[in-house]
Amino acid sequence: MSLLLVVLLPFLGAILPALMIRSGRDACAVSAGSVSVLALAILLTHAPAVLRGESPRADWVWVDRLGLNVSLFVDGLGLLFATMILGIGLLVILYARYYLAKGDAMGNFYTYLLLFQGAMLGIVLSNNVLLMLIFWELTSLSSFLLIGFWGHTAAGRQGARMALAVTGCGGLALIGGMLLLGRIVGSYELTTIVTAGDLIRQSPLYGWALGLILIGAFTKSAQFPFHFWLPHAMAAP
User: Is the CA virtual torsion 200, 130, 190, 79 positive or negative?
Assistant: First the structure.
């Protein structure tokens, strides 16, 4: 249950900054930062188990007929990235308190940032690849909101639209690749997929799955030849 709470807290807490901005910029920043601190504290309760070589899991049946279930786990790599997401996110919240001008909608910025934070946590802690794809697309949507935060500028609007178009198309490719991967293995659980390397490589669908997954990864990470959207994304705060 605590793993699910780590992922859900940023989404649930995203409404707080928009409400607390009426109480002042400091209260707004504190409300956003408190969400990250609480999620980080809960996450770190799993650190002793991970350091012992265990991988704490949390599983709930959701849409079982489609293979889409709420399945989360944290291993060493997941703990590292989740800690970075929450730790760096907390620093961004602190910096933004003094960086954003008085005329900027600080409450909206923190809301978008917490949504982005929650989506990234969902990606690194998901054990079900279909669930991971949902969070993957949520990062594209929240990135669109962050890049277009200064929507009164042409650069902000153009950068947001370009980022959403490129990463959105890449996300569709990733969905196709993951569906093929699940069909090959017979499961959408990541812990099952990573142990089926020989089965995947022997499948005639292997090349298609690999190509689609690489397109999804390359567009999101702005690798050549899909790198052109990233400079325009610098219009974000």
Answer: positive
CB environment 88-103: b (16+ within 10 A), e (fewer):
ebbebbeebbeebeee
Q: What whole-number distance in Å separates Cα of residue 122 and Cα of residue 3?
A: 10
- Domain map (residue ranges) of the chain: 1-127, 132-237
CA distance 4 to 27: 26
pLDDT tens-digit series, residues 111-136: 999 999 999 999 999 999 999 999 99
Backbone angles phi, psi at 60, to 5 degrees: -135, 135
- Summarize pLDDT for 170-215 with one digit per residue, the tens: 999 999 999 999 999 999 999 899 899 899 999 999 999 999 999 9
Q: What's the rounded Cα separation, in Å, for the pair 207 and 179?
A: 13
Which residue, among 151, 179, 170, 172, has the nearest Cα to 217 in the 3D structure?
A: 170
Report the predicted TM-score, pTM, of the whole model to 2 decimal places.
Answer: 0.92
Q: Are the CB atoms for 187 and 67 separated by under 8 Å?
A: yes
- pLDDT value for 105: 84
> What is the average pLDDT score of the chain?
91
What separation in angstroms does the CA of 103 have from each of 100, 200, 236? 8, 54, 16
- In the structure encoding, which two tokens stand for residue 135, read together? 């969070």
